[in-house]
Amino acid sequence: MTTITEIFVLKMKDGAHVDAVREAARKDFVALEGVTSWDTLVSVDPNRPTLYTDIFTFPDHETASRVTPQFSERPATKAFLAEIDDIVVGQFFQPHKPETTE
What is the pLDDT of residue 77? Predict the structure, then answer.
């Protein structure tokens, strides 16, 4: 089985409380069976809009497909979704394994 990574690149609404909202959502979501992790990265270019990348991992595609719909249904994660201004991208990814021609 291949580990699945779900990546969202987000523009967040302005709000000093967004980190607390994200942390509450993270604690709630990673407590679900099948969610391996939730990590967050933030862009660093002061001349461009701030973007956040929220990265979720799951043990396999079946688990990811079963668990991710719950994200929009849970109170803590709904509160986090309300802080999102725009989702630039959101998709499942897996490690790339190039085919060899040898």
Answer: 96
